Amino acid sequence: MSLRKSLAPVAAFALIGIALTGCGAAADASTAIANEATITLYTSEPQEKIDAVVSAFNVDHPEITVEVFRAGTGDLTARIESERVSGDVQADILLAADAGTFERYKTDDLLLAYSPADVESLDQDVVDPDGFYVGTRIIPTVIAYNTNLVTAPPTSWQDLTDASYAGTITMPNPDVSGAAAYNAAVWSDSAELGDTWLQELAANQPIIAESNGPVSQAVASGTSSVGIVVDYLARELKSAGSPIDLVYPSEGVPYVSQPVGIFASTDEQAASEAFVDFLVSEAGQTLAVSQSYLPVRSDVGTPDGAPSMDDITIITPDLTVISEIQAAAVARFNELFQ
Amino acid sequence: MSSSSKLLHQGPVEIDRARRAARPSRGVRVDGVDAVRVALWCVVTAVILLPLGALLVLAFSQNRLPLLLTGDVAQAGLNSVVSASVSALFAVVIGTAIALLLDRSDLPGRRVLRLFALSPLLVPPFVGAIAWIGIIGPAAPVNALWTHWFGSPLWNIYGGDGVVFLLTVHSYPVAYIIIAAALRRVPSDLEQAARIGGASAGRAVRHITVPLLRPAFLSAFTLIAVSNLADFGIPAIIGLPERYVTLSTLVYRYIQSGTVADPLQVVATVGAILMLGAVVAMIVDVLAARSNWELDASASPTQLLQLGRWRVATTAITWGGLLALTVLPLLALVSQALLPAPGIPLTWQNLTLDNLKRATTSPSALAGAGNSVMLSVFAGVICTVLGLAIGTLVTRTRARSNGMLRAVAMLPQALPGLVIAVSWLIIAPRIGLFNTPWLILCAYVMAFIALVVQSVSAPLRSTPLAAEEAARASGASRLRALLDISWRMAIPAAIAGGTLVVLTAVRELTISVLLLAPGAQTLGVTIFNLQQAGSYNAASALSLVVTVLGLAGLGLTARQSRR
User: Fold this and answer.
1) Which range of residues forms the domain containing residue B206?
2) In a domain, B161, yes or no
3) Between chains, do B340 and A237 touch, taking CB under 8 Å as contact?
4) At the N or C end, where does chain B have fewer CB atoms within 10 A?
5) How many residue pairs bridge chain A and chain B with CB atoms within 8 Å of each other?
6) Span B373-425, pLDDT tens digits
């Protein structure tokens, strides 16, 4: 008797479940794929942010399960490399730091050509003209400072070479952070800054933290008074109440666009395309803005406290040059700073 | 490899012998016990010998020693050896002092202090590291106050000295347990004789008790040094920010970031060397145990060491020290978990439960907890069954291969988790488990099976074989007697061992971080990733939840088993 009693609610739940999936599938059939699918996403997004993205995506696409594997860009590329050696890449989608990495995969024929729906309303600087990947956020690297420790903040990259900043700067490790690796290439390629500036900066002996997260923490907690770090982390801590503020240096800021691309080896092309569509859609970009990111479309506003895109000088180098010199630039950086 | 193939043959040889012995009297019949033995040999070969063999083969297939002797690897090796041996030395010194004070002196509150002294054992080392950063990290209260008063920070926990400090904190309880057990066997008659002969209390301890404890010192030192040699959490969280690289963090970097050509082979060589070190330590330990002398148990009650005029000072120092080691980290975790962001002063208005709420509801934390619980429960069940079978077989039957089977099952316990993880990583693609959570499960089973074998064989060894003999005399087969009598007797011990496996595996980090795969992120890895990504408040919140649940769980288990 008791067994039957305890089974009743289970059966009821099962019925409701079946009914709901039925409805969901029926509603979806008109808009997108109704098939159950599981896609694997390799990403360098912070865990909390990508969790929010996936749950927002699942509101529209409950039938697609997104399995997230999060690591630094350096770790992801190493993983992809070792998977290529032993077979196929395990991921369906890569959402990680810099266009250079995607340029390399494009040349190696690892990527599937796909232009998301609505691609024409995106910032064309972050869209691959060949249609293999598309940027999803504008992530500039800026100077952050602790407002308790610094009264006259630096305003340019050049300022950081001043001897008064010796031992007070923290910056991320380009072996781990894709943005840092990209920055190293942009800085050394810049006519204004170049190798001379890197040498002068190295003379101030900056502390090299593992990735951008620990840099922002070091500045916010006051361990370090100045940090070279991606803007959204500093902005987020500022709005959470930390004594931190940020400066967009006058020479211009290098930025990465956190591109997304689909691997050619995917078994779930339709589901992967739906996820890419969502990332750059109005809903996806509104979510990005609420996560403190600068968006890649102009119709969703900018995060609280962020300057308008027109007020920031942005360095937009030739990506083919950057992806060619990046490895050498990172090696030079490590030689100078570590 | 040759050794494993030799062992493979050992099973069939056993069967042949049993058959030959049985044939003349009872005709052809394969004995069930022999079948079980063969099956167990197959399992330990697959789960223990095969991966280790693959590691050795890969390590010695190409001479990588020149690479190991130069640059990064040599430096990391040196750091590992120094941090492991210095921390083991400190742990033994502190463990001895605590054992003498808590088990042999008239210090007030010894019973409560014993619980405090053992508590670091219950906190995963990487959680301890996160907590201590909150106490004496560069921006933590102690250094902030010190800078305020004296103009410069007191001590920065990051770097080699911090690694040694934390390894010591997390390993002195093991030293205390080993030394206290040895101390219980030293009769106080000897000390009393010395006191009667005119020696002071301190002199009697120094010249009588401490020399008798020497084998225990050696065994505690080797055990701790080997396990600290390959700890991952502490050097990764405390050492890396100051570029203090040890072998385990170097291996992690090599595997994760591919900063070296052919990382698996380099890593295999490092693993093989660590394995040799562990085997040498095991031999040292066995030799030390052999030279141990038996002392007659004392009939007189233990005479407590009178602390006399030192009593007040010693009491203050012991209480203060142990409270600082246990309560401070917990407070630090609480305060970091309750603050919304770094750099915000610790005041009542600023406290928030947001971090804790997010830590307990975020999908990644829940997925991590789910994976950890699933993997550790599976590992617990498998280890319980296998450990029960191996433990009863080697203690309740007679066969020449028993000693060998037991040694193979116990071997992984002496190996650093790093070696176990790397060896599974090597064979993963060949057995089709690459990038799956089952790889972690295999490694857990290999790493923790010894816990059950140990807990099963200890009580069985002290009970006579009479019950099995009675069963056999009443006509039961050997297998039947083994199943009905020995297994039944050992089941409570096996379940206790299995519970220990679950509790150890559920907060494991070293193995799961190296065998990380999409969809197989464990709780330990989730916390570690939050910390690495710089979400210190979130990492602390999750650590706090894990610590409190762990302490509660262990407390409940302890209470249950006491009943």
Assistant:
1) 67-263+306-326
2) yes
3) no
4) C
5) 112
6) 999 999 999 999 999 999 988 888 888 888 889 889 988 988 888 889 989 98
Does the distance separating the beta carbons of A79 and B256 come in below 8 Å? yes
Cβ–Cβ of B240/A210 closer than 8 Å? yes
- A36-138+257-306 topology per CATH: D-Maltodextrin-Binding Protein; domain 2 (3.40.190)
**DSSP secondary structure letters along B396-464:** HS--TTHHHHHHHHHHHHHS-HHHHHHHHHHHHHHHT-TTSHHHHHHHHHHHHHHHHHHHHHHHHHTS-
Dig out the tokens for B368 from the structure.
Answer: 């991590």
Q: Which of B257, B363, B532 sits opposite A51 (nearest CB)?
A: B363
Within 8 A by CB and 6+ apart from A47, the residues are: A68, A70, B362, B364, B526, B529, B530, B533, B535
Chain A residue at shortest CA distance from B436: A90
Q: Which residues of B touch A74 (CB under 8 A)?
A: 257
How far B412 CA sits from the closest chain A CA (Å)? 27
- Residues in chain A with CB shorter than 8 Å from the CB of B519 are 40, 67, 69
Are B322 and B345 in the same domain? no
**Chain-chain contact of A55 with B363 (C-beta, under 8 angstroms):** yes
pLDDT higher than threshold 70 for residue B300: no
Q: Are residues B461 and B373 in the same domain?
A: yes
Determine the Cα–Cα distance for residues A15 and A6; give it in Å rounded to an integer: 15
Which residues from B are below 8 Å from A175, CB to CB?
257, 259
Domain containing residue B469: CATH number: 1.10.3720.10
Q: How would you classify the pairing of strands A259-263 and A93-95?
A: antiparallel
Calculate the average pLDDT of chain A.
Answer: 85
The answer as to whether B275 is a domain residue is no
pLDDT tens, residue by residue, B521-561: 899 999 998 888 878 888 899 999 888 887 787 677 666 65
| pTM of the entire predicted model | 0.81
Answer yes or no: same fold for A36-138+257-306 and A139-256+312-337: yes
B388 and B512 in a common domain: yes
B319 with B352, same domain: the answer is: no
Which residues, other chains included, contact B103 with Cβ-Cβ below 8 Å and sequence gap of 6+? B110, B180, B183, B184
Closest CA to B136 of B172, B160, B167, B162: B162
A167 CB neighbour count, 10 Å cutoff = 10
Q: Which residue in B259, B344, B535 is closest to A175 by CB distance?
A: B259
Please report whether residue B38 resides in a domain. Answer: no
| Residues in chain A closer than 8 A to B362 (CB atoms) | 47-48, 51
Per-residue DSSP letter, B46? I
Q: Pick B342's closest partner by Cβ from A70, A82, A221.
A: A221
Q: Are residues B558 and B421 in the same domain?
A: yes
Q: Cβ contact (<8 Å) for A69 and B519?
A: yes
> Do residues B239 and B369 both lie within one domain?
no
The token pair that represents B317 in the structure block? 């120092």
Å from B340 to nearest chain A CA? 7
Q: What φ, ψ does residue A218 adopt, rounded to 5°?
A: -60, -40
Q: Measured between beta carbons, which residues in chain B are less than 8 angstroms from residue A209?
A: 241
Q: CA B470, B474, B478, B479 torsion: positive or negative?
A: negative
Residue B517 with chain A: CB contacts under 8 Å: 69
CATH code for the domain defined by A139-256+312-337: 3.40.190.10
- Of the candidates B364, B526, B535, the beta carbon closest to that of A213 is on B535
Inspect the interface and report whether the beta carbons of B257 and A176 lie closer than 8 Å. yes
CB count, 10 Å around CB of A188?
Answer: 21
- Render the burial of B128-152: b for 16+ CB within 10 Å, e for the rest: bbbbbbbbbbbbbebbbeeeeeeee
Instruction: Say yes or no: B125 and B225 in one domain.
Output: yes
